[in-house]
Amino acid sequence: MKSRHNGTAVDVLPSDAQRGGTPFDDLGLAVSCREPLSHHTWLGIGGEAGYFCEPVDVEALSRLVTRCHAQRIPFRVIGGGSNILVPSAGFPGLVVRLSAPSFSRIDVERPMLRVGAGAKLVHAVSAAVQAGLSGLETLVGIPGTVGGALVGNAGGHGGDIGECVREVSVMLPDGTVETRTGSQLAFESRWSNLDDCIIISCRFELDEEDPERLTKRMQKQWIVARSEQPSGTRSVAMMFKDPHGSSAESLVVQAGGRDLRVGEAAVYAAHANYMVASSKCLSDDVRALIELVRAKVRERLGVELTPQIEVW
Ligand SMILES: Cc1cc2nc3c(=O)[nH]c(=O)nc-3n(C[C@H](O)[C@H](O)[C@H](O)COP(=O)(O)OP(=O)(O)OC[C@H]3O[C@@H](n4cnc5c(N)ncnc54)[C@H](O)[C@@H]3O)c2cc1C
Fold this sequence. Notes:
With 312 residues, the protein is α+β, with helices and mostly antiparallel strands. It has helices spanning 12-18, 58-71, 121-130, 146-151, 211-227, 248-254, 283-301, and strands spanning 31-36, 48-53, 75-78, 84-85, 91-97, 106-109, 112-116, 133-134, 155-156, 159-160, 165-171, 177-181, 187-188, 191-192, 198-205, 207-208, 236-238, 261-262, 265-267, 274-277, 310-311.
């Protein structure tokens, strides 16, 4: 969820920090100050979060969200950090990570699977396959959490996560929880309408299938997914969404963009829709590289690519 108060609350934070406290002290929750977000992102770069918390349950999350709403403190949820670019200046508010067990539960309720938003997507896929429930196996190999996947309707050649979603439990900025179903949910290519809330959990409706056959299919899919991603480094990011009917990778190659680099950020030549960051890379290098590649594709091919990675 993106806070609607981004521009207004920054001045609240330093004064609280100077007094040695935080705006959350009376809530009895473990909120830390100046957490390096580079520890929580795939690229391993970016500045600090003013405040950081991993709430134990929905009630604790609600107290944090309500406080941010009341005091106009910017707020963000971080999932696996595989699709975000944090600026060097960091994020001047509270960042929450749903890593506690209560947000990562996976329950089989045939033919449904109920999954917490903090669960890793790969764990949800494996649980479904083991239970003989098909539909999610095409998502194997996509990094991150179920929450992050739902926000961006993650997917690939075989389908998107949104196709299997029947119900999503979300928290609103005032700390209340609601369930969204049917026409309240919208999923399009790498987009969903779940960007105005915190996703807490979801229910997937899946199909019964022989677990052995399903496992074999998932393994094949896994091999394909791995062969399409950079190997040997975790400091990678997917740069662009695939435009309708074509692939971002082929457009970058056609435009002659596979050897581009800015500072310590470079296009990964073997899979040109990814970029890799070396250890001294700055967020600005990544931003500039993405803009450079985008400009090259625009100039040479007349196609406007949409960035996949989200800049905080
Ligand atoms: C090697 C590699 C391969 C990839 N392959 C694919 C692919 O094949 N297909 C694809 O679609 N993507 C792919 N991606 C992109 C990325 O993995 C996906 O977008 C993924 O779903 C992001 O999940 P995350 O948990 O890491 O989200 P994050 O990067 O942590 O967050 C992404 C957004 O979701 C929000 N968010 C996270 N959790 C919640 C929550 N509980 N409630 C509300 N908002 C939340 C964040 O605030 C942020 O706005 C790839 C990335 C990499 C690095």
